[in-house]
Amino acid sequence: MVDDEQPPRDPLVLIQQEQAAMVRRIVPDPRLLLWPWGIAWLLGFTVFFLRYGPDDRVLVAMPPWLPLVFLLALIATAGTITGIVGARAARQVTGPSSRQGGMYGLTWALAFAGMISVLNRIGDQLPTGLANLVYAGTMTALTGALHMAGGALWDDRTLFRLGAFISVINVVGVILGAGWHALVVGLVSWLRMPR
Question: Would you say residue 20 lies in a domain?
């Protein structure tokens, strides 16, 4: 007679397997959250560098409006992708964690809306190269700070380190000046993306 029954499994192993499966369902692959932004920053800031290079040199002739429109389109695409990925994961979470995530997302939206409104009030009063540096440097600083805040909120060292890294390369880029900032932020940010 053949025994078709499986031997009983260790309950602790079953619990660990179920916990791992749940984490896979509710925690999105970080590459799906970070690669769209890395690609957007790499391509968008590189186009800025090519049009508004150091000392206001135009390295590749293109309409002056194109780099900003291109970068904003890439940012909108990255935001859409990460919004969909995040929303799918968030559907499985309720309670305080869900509220924290919603408030954190709203913080990003309102912080950027506020910063853009301030920068739009002063941007026209600056030379083009300096205006680009002020916009990009300020937005990158805000991105780094919000990542660090998120890392602190959720005790996520990886997110905190990413924010600190973005903040450091932003400072380096701002010190190097208009034109160079775009190249530094675009290329170095891409190199920091998880593989």
Answer: no
How far is Cα 145 from Cα 131, in angstroms, rounded to an integer? 21
Task: Identify whether 8 is part of a domain.
Answer: no
Domain that holds residue 143: 27-191
Residue closest to 139 by CA, chosen among 177, 182, 102: 182
pTM, two decimals, is 0.80
Name the burial class of residue 83, with classes exposed (0-12), middle (13-18) and buried (19+) by CB atoms within 10 angstroms of its CB. exposed
Whose structure tokens read 């920091």? 192
Over the stretch 102-157, which tens digit does the pLDDT of each residue have? 888 889 989 999 999 999 999 889 998 899 999 999 999 999 999 999 999 889 89
How far apart, in whole angstroms, are the C-alpha atoms of residue 79 and residue 114? 18
